[in-house]
Each structure stands twice: as C-alpha cells, then as structure tokens.
Design goal:
The chain is α/β, with parallel strands linked by helices. It is 42% helix and 24% strand. The chain has 2 domains: 138 residues, HUPs (Rossmann fold); 122 residues, Rossmann fold (3-Layer(aba) Sandwich). The protein has a 10-stranded mixed β-sheet, sandwiched between helices. Strand 6, helix 6 and strand 7 form a beta-alpha-beta unit. It is elongated, with a radius of gyration of 20 Å.
Length: 272
C-alpha cells in the first residue's frame, strides 16, 4: 500500500518548518504528501447562504494558491504532492481522507509554549489527536530536519500497546539503525511485576529487528530519571498511546510533555 503524510497547514512559520521536516523525511522513503488546510470563512451574521458560499469559494481558492506556492518552495520535485482545502471541520476532512487506500501518518506542527499548552489542553491539534483513529506525529516548531535513531515508547497498565500501529509508524522509517526503549511510569508503592513482564515481552518482540531495552520509573517525581534516558538529542522521539496517562494525567502531562517535547525539542508520536 502507498504511504502518505497528511500535513495540517495553517500558513504559519510552524507550517513551513513542518513542510521542511516532511520533505526531508519523504526524500529518504517513498512517501507521498497531502497538504490539508481548513479555511475560516468570515462573513457578516446576516449574509445569505449564496453569498457565504461565494465567500468560502474565494477563501478556498486563495488557500489553494498558497499551498501550491509552499509546495513549490519547500518540497522536492520528486515527491508526489496533492492538497485539499475546505471550510469543513478538520475532523470531517481527515475522516474522508483516512478511508482512502493509503498507509497514512498525520503530521501537525507545534508552535512553542503557547500552542503546546493548547495542544495539551484542547487545541485543534489535541482535538485531532483525540478524535482521529490514526497515528499522529506532532513536530516542535524548531525541528526542520528528519532524524530518528532513538524511540522512547510509553507503555500503560490499562491498555495493551497498539503493536500494529507502532509497526505502521516504524515502516515509515525505512530500515534505520534504531533503538527502542519501552518504559513505564509507576506511582509510589505501585506493584510492577506484571508491567515488567509486559515491558520485557515488548522488548523481546522487537529485538530481532532493532536494539531494544526497557525501564520502569518509580516514585512521585520520576522525571529526572526519565531524562537520564531521554537525552534531548535531535534524533529522539517520544511515543505515547491515546489514553496514556502522559496525555490524560495532569501531573505527568504538565511536566513530562513540556520538558521532553517542548523544552527537549523532540517529536511526539501519538498512537491510536
């Protein structure tokens, strides 16, 4: 099946850097790129339906011109590029695209502290993560070049790791010299025998293809221990699963995601 990146573009500086990141990635693997933009139609409250339709058509046409210009400026000619523009909600557009016969990754840019807080607290990006049954890659604003050699995979106790989706993501990486560390955040006095067994099983499962390891961090403040593993190199990636305490628990979300993704400038991959 053909592979495709679906990039959410809003014409900000973050979008330009996201394009550069996707272009660098796409040149290393055979991946097509779909650019997606949601237009915002501004019309007076009493505007009739036909006039609103014309305003929307004009806004969509202008956005298409901007997308073509961005693609010509930042994407290599050998990468196959398409685009879609609509005033419909992103959830609707993505639902339509994700049933097409492609193996997809959805890429969204993060714009720094302001948007990162929104990402974690209910922004458009977080809405996409919450409501899209597909793997999402959130890329910090200052990351412009693709490089992935170390992947840190958060494992939860409630939900088994989505192995098919993790494999789907790994297939987009080609055949890199890759290390995968599976880790778990344990609370104080929490038993860890069962989760250690699960971590070991995941590590063994992927060991024939990659260098693997696992770790358990125990205590009320495990972040310093985690940062000994996640060293904030540009080639690191943090993988979490939707429903993970890293996305839902206020304490973990506030500190871990901010420190490791925003301050550490590493991409965040969210598995469905």
């Amino acid at each position: 099946m053909r592979k495709r990146f679906i990039l959410l573009i809003d014409f900000s500086e973050s979008s330009v850097n996201l394009l550069k990141y996707a272009a660098d990635w796409a040149t290393r693997t055979e991946v097509e790129i779909m650019l997606v933009h949601q237009t915002v139609v501004v019309a007076p409250a009493l505007t009739d339906i036909e006039s609103k339709r014309r305003i929307a058509e004009h806004a969509n046409a202008e956005a298409r011109r901007e997308l073509r210009a961005l693609a010509q400026a930042h994407l290599p000619h050998e990468v196959k590029v398409s685009h879609t523009v609509s005033e419909e909600p992103l959830r609707t557009t993505l639902s339509r695209l994700l049933v097409q016969p492609f193996q997809d990754l959805v890429l969204v840019g993060m714009k720094g502290t302001g948007l990162l807080k929104q990402l974690l607290l209910g922004s458009v990006a977080m809405e996409v993560i919450t409501n899209t049954g597909n793997c999402i890659v959130a890329v910090p604003q200052d990351v412009k070049a693709f490089s992935q050699s170390t992947i840190h995979v958060s494992v939860t106790e409630k939900y088994p790791l989505n192995i098919p989706e993790l494999n789907n993501y790994l297939q987009f990486l080609g055949e890199p010299d890759l290390k995968i560390t599976f880790f778990y955040l344990a609370g104080p006095n929490e038993g860890t025998d069962d989760i250690e067994k699960r971590l070991r099983e995941y590590s063994d499962l992927f060991a024939p293809r990659f260098a693997t390891d696992f770790a358990i961090f125990i205590g009320a403040d495990p972040f310093q221990d985690i940062k000994r593993i996640v060293t904030n190199r540009a080639d690191e990636v943090l993988v979490v699963q939707r429903g993970s305490r890293l996305l839902t628990d206020q304490l973990f979300r506030r500190f871990l995601i901010n420190e490791l993704v925003y301050e550490g400038h590493i991409p965040l991959v969210v598995l469905p």
